[in-house]
Design goal:
Length: 179
Amino acid sequence: MYILIPITGLFRFVLICLINVVQIMKYPVLILLFTLVSDWAFCQQPSASFDFENATEETPLYTEAEKMPEPKGGLAALYKVISENLQYPAEVRKRGIQGKVFVRFVVTAQGKIESVEVLKGLDPALDKEAVRIIKLSEEQPGWKPGQEQGEHVDVQLVQPVWFKLKAEKDKEQGSSNDQ
């Protein structure tokens, strides 16, 4: 007897829901409007994302801010520093390993680089070089800190560092041009 009451209650609930759906189907415009409004309401993003795992009350850590940190001189300056200072380890070059190393780091409210770590690596030697390059970017070109509501804040970024070997044709052309 006790088991039949909840089943009956569930059956009544499902039946009432089905009747309401049939009645609502008379007004397809209302259904469309409700769908659009609910999608819009649930898809709204806040202006800043907050990293709750690594934050403290004194220093919140953002993953997205109103004004994101940027290298002094823009991305072109950062890419120039990377291209001029990147050292492709010889043992990795011999093995023909190439690709991207994704490095996560924090640009502090003072424009310093902290908490540098490899998210997705290729080879331990390439990973180490990618971390070195990101740490070097603190000095040259340097970083402008992120801002949230007019205040400088700590922001976590992910930067891919490309390791690409030159094609054999490029090497041959380069050596023939040198002669």
